[in-house]
């Protein structure tokens, strides 16, 4: 392949611009805000599920408390009825009086036990309410942090996108100075070799693979016409000759 020496040198300008575009793309993919946003979004999902579970527990405890309070009311009402019967003087049998007194005492013990159950449920309900409040507060904080991070991410991405736009425009101008066949070869090699399709030959070394060329290869390059497109024998990238090539 033949190409004017100036056109070949423009490949290095193009390679620098492409390297800048690659670095900008990498910066955009690896913004620190992205990982933090992902973490906070996952935490937000965890908090949402935890809040649903805690609210469900509160609802269950509400029902449990109402049932326990109803049991207390029923036992209390029965004890009150028995006490009224006892106080009415209508029961004269000693055996019946003794039985009724025993039942009242039993009902009072049962009421006391049920009231303890109600208190225990109320304590559990208070703890569950506190968990719900804490989880909601944490979720609100996470939402605020997430909003701030998203704003920082958007700002950083906009800056990168502006740089990409300017660099892309500059690249278009440089690419226009390169013959189509040489540009196509460069693009092909760039895709094969990690984004680097052309490299400078500097003091006998290829700056693409960083290897020093042997004497035979250097002599071959010295003998080549200025417009001949040279390839590195080691990495196969396009080698661009300059005054610093050491030829």
Automatic annotation (TrEMBL):
Positions of the C4-type zinc ribbon domain: 205-239
Biased composition (Basic and acidic residues): 61-87
Span list, region Disordered: 61-88
Gene3D superfamilies per the UniProt record, alphabetical: 1.10.287.1490
InterPro entries recorded: CT398_CC_hairpin (IPR056003), Oxidative_Scav/Glycosyltrans (IPR052376), Zf-RING_7 (IPR003743)
Pfam families: CT398_CC, Zn_ribbon_9
Domain CT398-like coiled coil hairpin intervals: 14-193
Record protein name field: Uncharacterized protein
Protein source organism: Actinomadura rayongensis
């Amino acid at each position: 392949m033949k190409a004017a020496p100036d056109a070949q040198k423009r490949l290095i300008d193009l390679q620098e611009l492409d390297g800048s575009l690659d670095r900008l793309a990498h910066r955009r993919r690896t913004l620190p805000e992205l990982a933090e946003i992902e973490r906070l979004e996952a935490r937000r999902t965890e908090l949402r599920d935890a809040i649903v579970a805690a609210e469900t527990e509160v609802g269950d405890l509400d029902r449990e408390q109402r049932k326990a309070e109803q049991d207390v009311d029923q036992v209390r009402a029965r004890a009150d009825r028995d006490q009224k019967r006892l106080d009415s003087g209508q029961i004269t049998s000693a055996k019946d009086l003794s039985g009724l007194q025993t039942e009242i005492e039993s009902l009072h013990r049962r009421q006391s036990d049920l009231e303890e159950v109600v208190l225990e449920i109320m304590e559990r309900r208070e703890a569950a309410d506190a968990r719900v409040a804490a989880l909601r507060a944490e979720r609100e904080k996470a939402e605020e942090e997430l909003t701030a991070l998203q704003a920082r991410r958007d700002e950083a991405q906009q800056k990168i996108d502006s740089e990409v736009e300017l660099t892309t425009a500059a690249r278009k101008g440089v690419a226009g100075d390169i013959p189509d066949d040489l540009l196509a070869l460069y693009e092909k090699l760039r895709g094969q070799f990690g984004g680097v399709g052309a490299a400078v030959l500097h003091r006998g070394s290829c700056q693409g693979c960083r290897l020093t060329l042997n004497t035979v290869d250097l002599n071959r390059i010295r003998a080549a016409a200025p417009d001949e497109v040279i390839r590195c024998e080691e990495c196969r990238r396009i080698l661009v000759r300059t005054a610093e090539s050491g030829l």
